[in-house]
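Quick one - first record:
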Amino acid sequence: MENEIRMMEWGRLICDKRLGMEEYHDERHHTRSDFQRDYDRLIFSSPFRRLQNKTQVFPLPGSVFVHNRLTHSLEVSSVGRSLANEIAIRLSGKYTDRDILRKLADIRDIVAAACLCHDMGNPPFGHGGEKTISAFFSEGAGRKFRDMLTERQWADLINFEGNANSFRLLTHEFKGRRRGGMAMTYSTLASIVKYPYSSLHSGSKGKFGFFESEEEIYRRVAAQLGIPELSPGIFARHPLVYIMEAADDICYQIMDLEDAHKLKIVSLGEVSGLLLDFFPAGRRPRIERSMGRLDDPNEKIGYLRSIVIGEMVESCAEVFFAAEESVLRGDCRQGLIAGMDARLRDAYAACAEVAANRIYCAPDVVNIELAGNHIITSLMEALAEAVTNPDRNYSRLLLNAVPRQYDTRAESLYGRLQSVLDHISGMTDVYALDLYRKLNGHSLPAV
């Protein structure tokens, strides 16, 4: 009986009600669905556009173009839409209710939108930016705030999480913004929360899905969609999270290899071998013949990359379809990548090993993390000092340069520190570097 009570239902999980605009909701079918409007709203938003100047892994391009957060998010959205489409096709053969079938057709657009915004809360300078912010509080100058905050608030700061910050960015009513933040649909919001629990449950990996300031919003979304609270403070995942997560995993692992090849960190032969391992031996000769018709090495890798992604999408769709009941019960404990057949899992693991040992420790990657660490730490120190001592002369000057949407005069210390995190996490690499130079007297406006 307990499983029946907790079982999620597609009829509730697919909901186009908008956060902050609930009173305007209607059930009419429009030419462009609200989920398509989510996608369009994100494409035209400033936070999404800023992703073009945020490092993904490698430093932003000189003569060789590599992925930034924007191109990564667009590719994840493309793969996510394809994966959701494959799953919708499989599920449409299982259900007969017309309303359910109509709603299942919407998962393509929901996943595409969720994939667009899954990285919007990440700070500048690549993956190290989150760790730098966390370390500012756990081992840097921010330690002095420990006894001024609750246990939950402190856990939010020392485990700063880009995923939780994305949820805040989409839902928080920043100064001058309408109620509901970006007023996204409930289903899109739930589909980005990979870790549906608070920082108190973040564990050794420091992963969680919402800050204390947004927990009430997440609870409201979960209640509307019928997402069960499995234990105090820990919710089941929305089923579409598994699709968004798999699309992200597929893209960053395969595309990082492609970028590493372009930058001559990994050879053509090595990347080709890694990608060919995704296929059974009987298929490889035909694939190699197709590669042989291409002269450009980058085109060879591009061809392999495309068919590897196709192979993984098909497999992940089968995994989701087979695990649907477990997913809807909220007791599925592994992602779609982990459920693929052994050949694909082993090939993916081999790519991950090369990435860890050869790509993420490459000099250019390490150098951007070192520089980013220093820049973010310096900005955190200056801005945290300013919001905690706002009446000092330097603080007033600095706070005048902070965009008005960030509430640097919030009543609580937690709220003021969050305004610092909002500002810094929203910066592009270029903006952060420019502000750092100005604050240290290395750059002055032209006179």
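second record:
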Amino acid sequence: MSRLAMLFDASRCIGCKSCQVACKQWWGLPASETVQAGTYENPTDLEPNTWARVTFHEYEADGQFQWLFLAWGCVHCTQAACVDVCPTGALKHHALGFVSLEREACNGCGYCSQVCPFQVPRMETVSLLTGAARASKCTFCQDRATNGLTPACVKTCPPGALEWGERDALLEKAHARVEWLKSRGYAQAQVYGERELGGLGRLFVLTAPPEAYGLPANPQYSTLAASWQNVVQPLGYVAVAATTLGLAFNWLATRRARLSNLESVEPEATEEREA
């Protein structure tokens, strides 16, 4: 099965936030109460109820100033730290190539939000009484994608800055676009996401270095995440089992000591009664 992906062309984006609004509408996500903080970004970060966001960046190069826009959300890594640390399988690699999320299976541990190199997953408190939480993030509209439909954000993008399709075809188009941009004076144009973390499901055509967009130039896959399911979690199970056995042994030893004490006291009590 061909891997599907999303391509964002920063050179086409006009910062209209239609993608951000479409995500909210399709998933029925409530708005956040915000205040003017001196930025065009609203809200200023991903949230449990904001899975897609357009970021604004001021960039100056060779004496020229420009605004850089980025349609941001989960990048669906091939080497996905969130998938590797998820203890319940709520996060997993879908056959179509994206990282799916089954919220009803999430136990709210928050591991995914701690190990993600891009700091994408957000935790939503679903019970103030118990403190129970659930992870949330962009899933490439997994309900639409698995039914042959285009994600809502891509479908609504007015300038065509977002595209959806087979990853290999999108990569070919991205490289052709970069060459065209370089011929038009964008010397720093490049493709981002082709090889990072094994290849991202969200690809980018950038006109400036990744850092200018707030992207890590070389995102790192956590060593802890890599060894989590094979080493850390099994050790945790061993520790729990050892603790349980220790408690059981302690209970048996204590019970045996009590029985021994009763047996030693009983003859003395019998002698007293006979006297």
